[in-house]
Amino acid sequence: MPTTPSRRTRRTQLAEPEQELTTPAWAAPASRAPLAPFTIRRRQPGPHEVLIDILYCGVCHTDIHQVRDEWRRGVFPMVPGHEIVGRVARAGEAVTRWKAGDTVGVGCFVDSCRECTACRAGEEQYCEGEGGPTWTYGSTERGGTAPTYGGYSTRITVDEAYVVGIPKGLPAAAAAPLLCAGITTYSPLRHFGVQKGDRVAVVGLGGLGHVAVKLARAMGARVAVVSHSPAKRDDATRLGAEEFITARNAADLGRQAGRFDLVLDTVSARHEYDTGLELLRRDGTMVLVGLPEPAPLEARPLIARRRRLAGSMIGGIRETQEMLDFCGREGVTADVEIIPIQQINEAYERMLRSDVRYRFVIDLASLKA
Ligand SMILES: [Zn+2]
Ligand SMILES: [Zn+2]
User: Fold this and answer.
1) In the structure, what pLDDT confidence band is assigned to residue 4 with cuts at 50, 70 and 90?
2) Which pLDDT score is estimated for 18?
3) pLDDT band at 96 (very low <50, low <70, confident <90, very high)
4) What CATH number matches the domain at 19-179+315-368, 2.60.120.590, 3.90.180.10, 3.30.70.370, 3.40.190.10?
5) Cα–Cα distance for residue pair 341/58, rounded to 1 Å
6) Which of 222, 243, 199, 215 has the alpha carbon at shortest distance from 334?
7) CATH 1.20.1250.20 corresponds to the domain 181-311
8) DSSP per residue over 308-330, as a string?
9) Ligand nearest to the CA of 129
10) Pairing between strand 280-288 and 308-311?
11) Which ligand is nearest to the CA of 113?
12) Surrounding residues of ion ligand 1, Cβ less than 5 A
């Protein structure tokens, strides 16, 4: 019967698109263009993958850098978002770590080579394999040609090894920024050995800085905030800082010179480094976690007290889980303002004016409606 095979063929053809999930998202259609509604396809989870229904996605300053193509490696249309918290909708048959219903997170990367020395050390963010880590958005999928799309969407499919668990008790929206802002500041505090009683100065009180203050305080450090905005003094105190140093006040800075074990510089706008370096004691370390435009560096403040200037970028999967568990025990979350996706362009404008205390988080229910 000729009709049967043809119907079967047609069914096979129809079945193809069902392997991909039509998913609403918001994207920047081109560099510097405002974000607008966009439709993407997510794959059905493979044996080692989970399909996650996204609940919340934090809005990171990197999203703005990328949408404006300031790092000149943007892939458009671009769906930003790498502070993702959601619920596992479906797990592949070989998945062992997660099950449907688990509250999980996805941060800045969704894959890496898994073979280089960095990956084997659990520092996948520094992957030395071809192309480095596969970023959650703006990358090309490993072994494929499809672009990766981030969390300004209603679901995402990720390998189980690149997913972390959100501890019970942490509110999902306020936990989302921990996936980037949290790990970006937790990792250097741990790596450079902050101990109870150490003096830590956090430069810049924004999305990264406000989480850094809470984390350093929870580790038992004595925290100071260095900020250009005297208006943030009360917030610094509320977040757990003992001291507030006005970055523009030379006398204030002078009194603080040589007092700090670690300076965590979270500023992403161009600035000079000697102000922060002068705060360090002998053998102290200043760590950069922002990515500002180049600025001159003077040798004198470094050699004067054998100070060190270092950098740090997010953290590996194992350390991200450790950070989340620490935040679960200590009750650390971000201070967030929850917005519907429809307000994202306005939120970017407000972030550029530092008009957010301290992180926007998108409620993806606004995209499902
Ligand atoms: Zn980020
Ligand atoms: Zn690697």
Assistant:
1) very low
2) 58
3) very high
4) 3.90.180.10
5) 11
6) 215
7) no
8) EEEE-----HHHHHHHHHHHHHH
9) 2
10) parallel
11) 2
12) 60, 62, 180
